Amino acid sequence: MILAVTNQKGGVGKTTTSINLAAALARKGQRTLLVDLDPQGHSTLSFLDHESIDRSIYDALVEPDVAAAEIIRPTTDEYLHVAPARISLAKLEGKLLGEFDGHYRLRDELKSIVKNYEFIVIDTPPTLGLLTVNALVFATHLLVPIQSSYLSLEGTDDLLETVDRIRKQVNRRLQLLGVLITLHDNRTILGRDVVAQVREVFGEKVFQTIISKSVRLEESPAYKESIFTHAPRSSGAKQYAELGNEVMQRA
Ligand code: ADP
Ligand code: MG
User: Fold this and answer.
1) How do residues 124-143 score in pLDDT, each as one tens digit?
2) Which of 66, 141, 149, 207 has its CA 20 to 30 A from that of 184?
3) Can you tell me whether residue 233 is helix, strand or coil?
């Protein structure tokens, strides 16, 4: 399964979900590749040191002589690999503008390594630009994190329209795997209202697992860890492990 974690809104938990879902799947013995497609590189930096990254996904996408396999890096979990991003990725849009295969670069570059993994998890930037389109062209499935807050559903129409267009034009196999409620605070009436509202709009597509607001989840990247090593007993670890199970069941 090639899973794009996408929502064009920032701050909804895409990166946190990409990191911890990839780690959860790897811990269940699934060979997993985390592809960082956000120029901010936060997924990358949760597992690798900045200084240790010489070549990144940008090089694989633009340099004809850099193969994807050359930029993929191991982590302390033998089942988890990372295709790192650096700020250079911000140049990609300009670089591929007007190239006839601009939307297909990720798919074409990673095609040869798909067979090495049960799961490829792609963290995407908070736009519907070329990077996100590359992710959606390559993906088999889409996971949409939605922040449990006021106006959380605003913008999901645009996303679903883009997905529809991509499905019709270039990637018929693309499916919505699920909608994940994140940053949830069950103590507030608003929080509970949002859950009801999201369930009303997306029905069965909403994952049973809900990710609560948690300081442990917020701080774990700073320690270069997933939630499973940073705070293995925390609610965040339990919830992302459950999400891993749900994703495997839906696969
Ligand atoms: P996105 O990638 O969609 O922009 P992030 O995953 O970077 O979103 O999350 C935005 C901010 O919220 C980050 O500072 C992150 O650490 C924090 N965050 C994400 N999920 C949680 C959570 N469940 N509990 C607390 N903080 C969270
Ligand atoms: Mg992010």
Assistant:
1) 999 989 999 999 999 999 99
2) 141
3) coil
* C-beta of 15 in contact with ligand 1 (< 6 A): yes
If one compares 169 and 241, the residue with the highest pLDDT of the two is 241
216 lines ligand 1 (CB under 6 A): no
2-250 has which CATH code? 3.40.50.300
- The verdict on pTM exceeding 0.85 is yes
Cβ of 5 less than 6 Å from ligand 1 = no
Residue 239 is encoded by which pair of tokens?
């919830």
Please tell me the distance from the alpha carbon of residue 224 to that of residue 229, in angstroms, as a whole number.
Answer: 10
Closest CA to 235 of 212, 219, 218, 202: 212
CA atoms within 13 A on the CB side of 43: 33
| The one-letter amino acid at 46 | S
Helix and strand totals (H; E) in the chain: 12, 8
Nearest Cα residue to atom 7 of ligand 1: 15
- Judge whether residue 150 has pLDDT over 80: no
- 59-86: b (≥16 Cβ within 10 Å) or e: bbbbeeebebeebbbebebebbbbbbbb
Q: For residue range 158-177, what is the model confidence (pLDDT) as tens digits?
A: 888 888 999 999 899 999 99
- Greatest alpha-carbon pair distance for the chain in Å reads 55
Q: Whose CA is closest to 156, among 217, 200, 120?
A: 200
What residue ranges do the domains of the chain occupy?
2-250
